[in-house]
Each structure stands twice: as structure tokens, then as C-alpha cells.
Amino acid sequence: MFNQPINITQRNLLLILYVVILCFFGPTVYWITHREPKSTEAKGKNSIERRISLGDKILVTAHDNTAKQEGVKAFDQGDYVVAQENFSLALKSDRNDPEARIYLNNTIAAKTKDPYEIAVIVPIGGDLNVAKEILRGVAQAQDELNRRGGINGKLIMLEIVNDDNDPQIAKEIASKLVKDKKVLAVIGHNGSNASIAAAPIYQEGNIVMITPTSSAETLSTIEDYIFRASPNTRDLTEPLADYAVNTLGQTKIAVCSDSEAEASVSFEENFTWAVYNHGGKIIPIDCDLAGDLLPSEVPSQVVSQGVDALLLNPSVRRVDKALEIAAANDDRLTLLGNHSLNTYTTLKEGQKDVNGMVLAVPWYPPQSSNLFTQDAQKLWGGTVNWRTAMAYDATQSIFKAIASGAERQKIQQALANPEFSAQGATTEIGFLPSGDRNLRGTLVKVQPGKQSGTGYDFVALEKKLTTTNTK
């Protein structure tokens, strides 16, 4: 009888202790076991939000000053008067900043009733120079339009989005923009891989995407909401192949490409066909810029196979490898290049190694300046390249389409109309049923010059010009 009460007491104490532990630690255990999915979801959402700005955050941190910081702070608080003052000050100290130019115009538009909103997607974290070149084009178009009073009395706001040229991020951004009904259309993406990844989402969401720079032919097959302002790779490679075979007399050509980049693969395929059509031959070599090749050994291997010319066909992120091959060439092979090499980096880093290289590009400034090039000079203090011009053209196309109806479906219908026409940087803009632009590429050549500040410039190559073999 003596042990029974003791057992009951022990049992009760254990029960009470269990309840206390459960009450105290239970919520903690639940929080630990359930917080990860919520944290991941929040992190994903916040990471996309950090990539998007109408003027409330600085995305291009390479262009940063106190006035710009005060501008985004005021914009975020809805104080557009103070924001406008500060963005104006920021541009006075750094007029070559396209982000500040866009934010200034957004601030002015935000003070008006129901401005139209367009998203522009660029690879700020992937290739800053390329991103700024594209932003200058859309900024110039926005600046011109808003100064004229907008479209039907409504001004334009541009939402800057950074996708890093990452296909997965591009898809997440596309999903968000499709759901944001304020966004009427999308200008982007830059890289073909990113555009191809995001395009089906825009198509399904019935929102127009016009890429200013993606050239891979795969985009031509993604139905009717996808357009491009620049030529596809077929129209880029034809003039280059013609020039290489018929003007330079180079009939045996090898190619170094980036197997991981859709545009690079597409460029090589179409260049190969064009070379054969002109009577030349492509000599197969093992030169994948996405692989573990040794750039210093490529020219010797190519020369040993009796090759006359080498096409350097990188994606933007592998321009450095192409330039390493050019450095090892030592004038043994005639060098050709794709449009990705039309960058400041090519001139600055390539120097004499790329002297004489001929590139295929979508556009080059005309010899006699027009309104676009004059305005570009005033805004940015210098000449601009094809990415700026094609971004300008993409933006002008959307502006013209919005004038026919400020709804997503009506914008698509306007662009798809065979009679559609808008004034671009130097030529009229129109689209084929595939969404491709009816535009042929042109050629430029690297030569010594003073315009870029590197000692070398890209200069227009006239079709009738006969160039001696640089081999």
C-alpha cells in the first residue's frame, strides 16, 4: 500500500512534465520545421522585387551619387517634386546615366493622371555595359515622347528590370510581369537564352515582348506575341559570308562558337549555309568557347588544317575567350566576328589583336547624322551602337502600337498588322508574320581611331570596299 501513492505521484509528475515540455518546445519545433518553405518563398519574392524599379531603388550602382540616392528615396515616399529635383541634379553630374534619365521622366509622368507603363528588361548583373546600351535607347525614346506630351495626352513610365541574362530569373520575371496588369508591354530580354525561356510565358499571358537584341531563330517560332527589333541570325550572317568569300577571297573558314548560347549556335548554322552558298567551305574544328579549350593553342591548330579565316562567334559573356584567341592569332588568320563582339571591351582589351577584324552587326550610325544620332549625342555625349538603336526602335514600335489602343491585345494586333510602320533610328520599322523584323545586317571593321578613346574604333565597311587579306 505504501508504494501505490508513490507510483501515482511519479506518473502525474511525468505527465505534467511532458505537458510543460510540449507547451514550451512545441511551437518552437513547429516554427523550425515550417519556416524553411516560407523563408524560401519570401526570399524568392523579395529577390525579384529587388530587381524591379520605377525609380524607388538604384539598380545601376555603377552610376551612383548623393542626388540620385535622394531622388530614389523621395520617389519611394511619393514626393515626386523632390525626386524630380534630385534626378535632374544627378544628370547634371553624370549625363551618361540612362537609369537616372528614365527615373527623371518617370517622376514627371508619376505626377500626371494614369501614365502608361512599359517594362524594359536588361542584364545589369550579367553585362553592365550591354544593359546601359539598351537602357540608353529606351530612355531616349521615352524622353522624346514625354517631351511631346506623350500618347493621347498620357506620359510613359518605364519599369527597369534586371534579369542578369539568367533564363531562370527571366522566367520568374516574366510570370510577375504577366500578372501586373499595369504593364502594357515588355522590351527585352537581351540574351537569346533568356528571351527563349521567357517568351512562352508572355505568349500564354497575352502580353507583347519585343526583344531589341536577341537574334536566335528559335524566337521566330513562338507564335504571335513575340517580336524582335534586330535582324535574326540569317539576316546577320549573309552579308558577312558574302564579304568573306567574294571580297576577301577566303574560301576555307573555321568557326569558334559558344555551344551554350542559342544565338551563337544559330549564328554558326546560318553562317555555314551562307558560306557554302557563296562557294566557300567551313572546316570543322574543335573550338567550343563554352568548353575547356586553351585559347592560346587554337590559331596553331586551325592554321595546320589549311584554314584561311576564323570566325569568332561568342556570346556576350564569353567575349573574353574570343579575345584571348585573337591575341594568340598573331596575324596568321583573317579574323571575322559576330555582333556580340561589337562592344567597348573588344576595342579596349583587343587593341591591335583585333585590328582589321570584320564584324556583322544589326546597325551602324549613318555617315550623315540624322535626328536620332543628333539627339543621342546631346543626351549621352557621344555616339551609340546597335543595341541602343535597336532598343530605341523596339520602344518606338510599342509607342506607335499603344496609340492604336492601350490594351495588351490591341498592341499585339497593331504590331502584327502587315501595314504597321513606325519610324526607327534610321529606317522604318515593320514586322514579318513570324515577328521578325524585315532588316538586313551590316558590316563594320576594327581600325585605329580616336572616337572610342581606346585607340581603335568600329568603322562602317562599305559593300563596294575591297579589303586586302590581313593574313
Structure description:
The chain is an alpha/beta fold and 471 residues long. The chain has helices at 3-49, 66-76, 80-93, 98-110, 128-147, 167-179, 192-204, 233-247, 262-277, 298-303, 319-329, 344-350, 371-380, 386-402, 408-416, and strands at residues 52-53, 116-122, 156-162, 183-187, 208-211, 226-228, 252-257, 281-282, 309-313, 334-337, 358-361, 422-423, 428-429, 442-448, 456-460. Helix 2 runs antiparallel to helix 3 (80-93) and helix 14 packs across helix 15. The model is unreliable at 1-8, 18-45 and 464-471 (pLDDT under 50).
CATH arch. level architecture of the domain at 112-231 and 369-429: 3-Layer(aba) Sandwich
Report the top-level CATH class of the domain at 112-231 and 369-429: Alpha Beta
Number of strands: 15
Terminal-residue CA separation: 110 Å
Could you spell the SSE succession in H and E letters? Answer: HEHHHEHEHEHEEHEHEHEHEHEHHHEEEE
- The average pLDDT value, as a whole number, equals 90
Uncertain spans: 1-8, 18-45, 464-471
Q: Going across the major beta sheet, what is the strand order? A: 8-7-9-10-11-14-15
> For this structure, what is the CATH homologous superfamily of the domain at 112-231 and 369-429?
Response regulator
Counting DSSP H or I runs of 4 or more residues, the number of helices is: 15
Quote the beta fraction.
5-15%
Radius of gyration: 27 Å
Form type: globular
CATH topology of the domain at 112-231 and 369-429: Rossmann fold
Taking the sheet with the most strands, its summary is: 7 strands, mixed
Query: Helix- and strand-based class?
Result: alpha/beta
Helix-residue proportion = 40-55%
